[in-house]
Every structure is written in structure tokens, then in C-alpha cells.
Amino acid sequence: xxxxxxxxxxxxxxxxxxQFMSKVLYAREGARSxxxxxxxxxxxxxxxxxxxxDIEVPEDAEGVLVANIGSYMGGVDLWQNEDESYDNFDPQSxxxxxxxxxxxxxxxxxxxxxxxxxxARRLAQGxxxxxxxxxxxxxxxxxxxxxxxxxxxxxxxxxxxxxxKRAAEEPLGHxxxxxxxxxxxxxxxHVINASQKRALLQEMALRLT
Length: 209
Hints:
Pfam families: DAGK_acc
Helix content: 25-40%
GO molecular function: ATP binding; ATP-dependent diacylglycerol kinase activity; zinc ion binding
Order of helices and strands: HHEEEEHEEEEEHH
CATH topology of the largest domain: Tumour Suppressor Smad4
InterPro entries: DGK, Diacylglycerol_kin_accessory, NAD/diacylglycerol_kinase_sf
Protein name: Diacylglycerol kinase 1
Number of strands: 9
CATH architecture of the largest domain: Sandwich
Shape: globular
Structural class: alpha+beta
Number of domains: 3
Largest sheet: 4 strands, antiparallel
Radius of gyration: 20 Å
Domain Diacylglycerol kinase accessory: 1-145
Distance between the termini: 45 Å
């Protein structure tokens, strides 16, 4: 859908004269994708390897996503650290140099993800991701789509940068931000688990209010 919209914008920029029309056109292409199930053969057109291990792509998958942060499409949490039904996976963290791989089952699934009615399917975690395309397929990196011929895409952690953010104006807000960061690091380093982190955050919230 993103590639179709990108091509349409390149060919007919006058149609994208305001945000509302852009959303209408995006919805139209999304509805067409849902009806056509354009990528129903996707599981047999790709091979995924994580740290040298072949990963099975679910038969209902129509896309595979590789992420390093907990936010996608303007705030969707793909990995959902609070979900404890995946005992064999670690919490997602942007600090650990580990990438997360999930699958989605089409445009309708993406729509439900965005409004919190569904979740992505966890596939793997690792430092070296290889995705082999056995057929021409659309690919997107950070919002930039293109049509890719058969190849092998290699994804790995490249580097880290220190980022500045505005400190909370109120002392309590600043303290809460520090506590949250400490607990997230503790969870990443397996000092505490997700349930303990959640309980501690709730207790801190009560004490700081």
C-alpha cells in the first residue's frame, strides 16, 4: 500500500493537496489490498534467517517487520514487552543491540494494530537478520518504499548515538522519568521481569501522586 501511494504521489502530486485527501487515497488503496490479498503467497516467497537459524514464516503472513524500537506507525508497540505469553523471548530494548522480527497478516491486521485491537506475531530476536526474497516484492525502510527484485537483505545493528530530550519541568516528572529508565534497564539485564517492572511502576506512580 505504501508503495502504491508513493507511486501515485509521484505520478499525480496534485491529488495530495491536503491531509484529508491523502488519508482517503491511502484508505482506498488499503481496502483494495484487503480485498485482493495481494501477498497471499508471501510465506513461500521469502526466507528469514536470524543469527544463522532459519525462521519459519507463518502461512498467514503477508509481511515481515524488523524493528529496534518499541514504536511503529506513530506509536504502535509491535513487541509488547508486557505480553508474558512468549516465554522464550526477551523484552524489547533499544539499548541491547538486538533486533526484533515480527510478522503481520495484511493491511487489515495493520489497521487493527494501530487501534490496539490486535498484535503482531513475534518470530525471532537476534543481531544478524537475513531476508531472502525469492520473488520481486515491495520493501520499505523507515517510510521509504520501493519494488525490490529477488535478493538477500542483510540487517544488523550499525551504531548508537546519544540523544538529548527535554527534561520534565516538574521535579516529580523528572524523578518518574529516571525511575522508568532504571526499571527498563533492569528488565533488559534480567534483574527483574516484566511483571515485577509493572508492579514497581504502579507502586511508584501511587507514591509520586
